[in-house]
Amino acid sequence: MSGEASLHRRIRAEVQGRILSGEWPPGHRIPAEHELMAAYGCSRMTVNKALGPLTEAGLIERRRRAGSFVARPKIHSAVLDIPDIAAEVAGRGEAYAYELLAREERPADTAEADALDLPPGAPVLALSCLHRAGGRPFALEERLVNLAAAPDARTVDFAATPPGSWLLGHVPWTEAEHRIGAAAATRSTARALAIPAGAACLVLQRRTWRGADRITEVRMTFPGEAYDLVARFTPSQA
Predict the structure, then answer these.
(1) Do residues 88 and 121 both lie within one domain?
(2) Both ends of the chain: CA-CA distance in Å?
(3) 13: exposed, middle or buried (C-beta count within 10 Å: 0-12, 13-18, 19+)?
(4) Of the candidates 103, 86, 105, which has an alpha carbon nearest to the alpha carbon of residue 94?
(5) Model pTM greater than 0.70?
(6) Rounded to an integer, what distance in angstroms lies between the CA atom of residue 110 and that of residue 171?
(7) How far apart are CA 205 and CA 222, in angstroms?
(8) Total domain count for the chain?
(9) How many angstroms separate the CA atoms of 76 and 87, rounded?
């Protein structure tokens, strides 16, 4: 094995070890190419061979004109579950924070009434919230609550309690529907999530029912690199 070939494996192993040990936490800036070249006495090609597989493995995130950084962990959620974002973020060891952006109780307009299968004018609670993980915007939540199905929501301080967490703990549900897709960030979404307008986002839309009554509809928008939806299942039986 040539010296260059063994050196890029050594660089890769040492960088990976510092990441996996926690010495370099998520968001930590990796030494620049010229710094690694000087430290190891090697060529730019050797450095690229060392860091390339770490980028492909999701351990390193390369940002144009900014450098390379330790990637922040993705949150994984089961497609067929209703996740509690606060619990999931905390479970990954990241600090969770939450902000209520807007709250309005109002008569449902035509689109809102259709979303919740209500007559136009029925009372709904509209909420807009921002979730953060490790200090960074993680998800924009836009939610409608059917106040006939969850009347206690009127008195909840959603500035202190995320609506998803409260609903999971206080309003029984019998059925849920997920719709998962991709969308480019609008200007308002981009501002909330601190990403460029037009950036790729993962969008999760969910409706929940209790019997025949729809309880809530929510649209969760995540920066594309921040969230995975995972399902594990077995073949159906004949």
Answers:
(1) yes
(2) 54
(3) exposed
(4) 86
(5) no
(6) 25
(7) 11
(8) 2
(9) 12
